[in-house]
Amino acid sequence: MSSQRPPLTAGRLLVLVLGSPFLALYGLVTLVRGAIALGRRGRAARLALGATLVCQNGHANETVGRWSCAACGSIYHGWVGRCAVCSAPAGRMDCATCGVGMPLPWSRR
Ligand SMILES: [Zn+2]
Ligand SMILES: [Zn+2]
Fold first, then answer.
1. Which candidate among 22, 44, 58, 80 keeps its CA 20 to 30 Å from the CA of 100?
2. Does residue 85 register a pLDDT over 90?
3. What's the CA gap between 93 and 64, in Å, rounded?
4. Which ligand is nearest to the CA of 68?
5. How far is the CA of 87 from the centre of ligand 2 (A)?
């Protein structure tokens, strides 16, 4: 009976250690690319859902309606986040009930 130690253990460890940074890097790149693509899609999907914004006084406001653009001054219909005339991103909207201004969460950078 000879207790043979598998010589592969150390070698496998080495391969794992050497291989993992490359795998991690590759995984990271793939993840970042996927996250960017998903983020764009997720953002668009979330915006398309037309969530309501709640003002400081608790009034729920639809994000789809009639808005005036702060950039070009046009009145536009639809989703509040982007002017339909000059396509400028909106930075805030006013509560329809009490007039309190609300920053748009998706416009923060
Ligand atoms: Zn505009
Ligand atoms: Zn309000």
1. 44
2. yes
3. 11
4. 1
5. 26
